[in-house]
UniProtKB/TrEMBL annotation, chains A, B:
SMART domains: HTH_LACI. InterPro entries: HTH_LacI (IPR000843), LacI/GalR-like_sensor (IPR046335), Lambda_DNA-bd_dom_sf (IPR010982), Peripla_BP_I (IPR028082). This is LacI family transcriptional regulator. One of its GO terms (molecular function) is DNA-binding transcription factor activity. Keywords: DNA-binding, Transcription, Transcription regulation. Residues 2-56 form the HTH lacI-type domain. It comes from the Bacteria. Coiled coil: none annotated.
Length: 347, 347
DNA sequence: CTGAAAGCGCTTACAG
DNA sequence: CTGAAAGCGCTTACAG
């Protein structure tokens, strides 16, 4: 590998000058700068990252904290691929790379009480690698553990969980508006008994979607009925179970807003199992717009999140913290109601 | 951050000894080893990775080459999340981390002729970070570009593409057997005119699945008919288009083996659009067992790949190359036929 | 605008 | 078994 020293010798300058050409080009005379740049390009030189990180005490890597060994064994992010895509392309435009952090705990056994694989190990990992910043993906119950990161002073941006700290912010969808849109849409179709299957307690997006449900109801001038709010956990099985219970009631709802597509799919299956037609007997609307939404039968009407935008926004917030000391405001991504067949408005 | 020097001073030994305790514990006397270990643990010391990488000329990171800015804008891996999960947990058990490589090209514009974002840039990235090895995810057309990596001498393991080089190997599913299983299953159900919608030309798994189709036919003593083999590209649209054409024929097939679930879903939609009932009028079997397979209507019979096993096997192959000079044989993961409704055997 | 020098925190022959 | 020393390849005050 060609080193700065070699470039320096070839150009008849010191390594310090070569370094300056790459780090503070303005402080180098145009002539020598161009000379160094040309030679460096010809020899395909680029500074060794390990050496650079060592001397600057900061690498060009951003850590990704993604807890994969969660108690909920089947935990899956609804749109990890898009997220990574967005993160990667936004980060790479500024020369940063994503390091998927893993602790030895990830490999297997763990004491089942812990919510995130040893946050201390992650924080130490972070220092060892001189990471420039951290992106935190919430798996639903890591919120508390995340504060260890937020308080480490490192630039942090969390996804879908409110994070605060000296250099921490977060990005989330405008969950309340999205949910309100869904409910208003159902109300406009004539539904008066609109139930909701919420996400788990303590989850930020879940709470916001429930708020949005209430707001949508109020905006449509529909009364709030406590018994129409049932609690799920974002996963399909809970959607199935809660829907079954709702349909077994004496006065079942005529429409259901599920706070995730997974639950909405579960609800669809429960309706089918109960011999209940969707949307004729009961309308269903979901949230997320994951791939299956358009494939289930009937195709699911849902509130789409800007999946790739999540990654882009997270990267943007992180990058801005890397250049300045200002902490960006939390980002709230707009959502979009995607009308398909399960709500009945297409008939 | 606590450094080896501090530990050394506290223990009254040299930094060299501290280093040895962590790297060649056998060369240190039991007494001093234990002393150093205890102090290090108490102070939560762990060696700085940048310094270590610099002096050893090798980091504890494994690069992930995942081309996200492909010409095929909508390129998606069918099970990236499971793959990453498997990779991460297997790698972390040995202290390695995954670095998602990105070149500046990833951010946007690229000359449309290139099949992988500047492989040269990736290779240089690899050296700059002193990566220990590389995992290559094929997006279907990167095979050629991958050889640049394979010949760099760095330990490489590719997924779903045959890679050879001084220290390169690959992992793939046993695509031929899986396809043969699917075809034999259809034949056992009485089908005699079994068509296949293949993957794209030049793609390794696609070719193997076509081979398996032929083998299955032969094993069921069914004649091969060239006109029953049509070419898709693994994506839904091609499945839709090819299925439509197949069904429009004078003597349409009674069963179709699609070389991917995405295409099988497309085929299902085409059948529905053509007023053709599945499985009554035509049976469909897919390949992959992605999440939607169980959700489409009718639920898709398919050949399941060991998604997480891909990651685990890739990590295993890489790790073994990291400790020894032997190059592991290519890994061929077993597949499993998952019988649901679209093949008609459940009736 | 540029160079010499110190320093980032490890690892590893080389002596002893 | 252990230490002193050189070296990994950069960056950055400090002089000039």
């Amino acid at each position: 590998m060609v080193t700065a020293r070699q470039i320096a010798q070839l150009c008849g300058v010191s390594v310090a000058t070569v370094s300056r050409v790459f780090n503070r080009p303005a402080t180098v005379s145009a002539a020598t700068r161009e000379h160094v740049e040309r030679v460096a390009r010809d020899l395909d030189f680029s500074p060794n990252e390990a050496a650079r990180a060592l001397s600057r005490q900061r690498s060009t890597m951003v850590g990704l904290v993604w807890d994969t060994d969660h108690r909920r064994h089947s935990w899956r992010h609804p749109f990890l691929q898009d997220l990574l895509l967005g993160l990667k392309s936004a980060l790479s435009s500024r020369g940063y790379h994503l390091l998927m952090l893993a602790t030895s705990d990830d490999s297997g056994s763990r004491n089942p009480g812990a919510s995130l694989a040893d946050p201390v190990a992650y924080v130490s990992m972070t220092r060892r690698h001189h990471l420039a910043g951290l992106v935190l993906i919430d798996s639903g119950t890591d919120a508390e553990a995340f504060s260890a990161f937020a308080h480490s002073g490192l630039p942090c941006v969390a996804l879908d969980v409110a994070l605060s700290g000296p250099r921490a912010t977060y990005v989330t969808s405008d969950n309340a508006s999205g949910a309100a849109d869904a409910v208003r849409h159902l109300a406009a179709l004539g539904h008066r008994r609109i139930a909701t299957i919420t996400g788990p307690h303590g989850n930020v997006p879940a709470a916001a979607r429930t708020d949005g449900y209430l707001r949508g109801l109020a905006e449509a001038e529909l009364p709030f009925r406590e018994d129409l709010v049932v609690t799920g956990d974002f996963y399909r099985e809970s959607g199935f179970a809660e829907m079954r219970r709702l349909l077994a009631r004496a006065d079942p709802p005529t429409a259901v807003f599920a706070a995730s597509d997974e639950m909405a799919v579960g609800a669809l299956l429960a309706a089918r199992a109960a011999g209940c037609r969707v949307p004729d007997d009961v309308a269903v609307v979901g949230f997320d717009d994951i791939e299956v939404a358009s494939l289930v039968d009937p195709a699911l009407t849902t509130v789409a999140q800007d999946k790739r935008g999540f990654g882009t926004a997270a990267a943007g917030a992180l990058l801005s913290m890397l250049d300045s000391d200002e902490v960006p405001e939390p980002v709230r991504l707009p959502t979009k109601l995607v009308v398909r067949d399960s709500c009945g408005s297409q008939r």
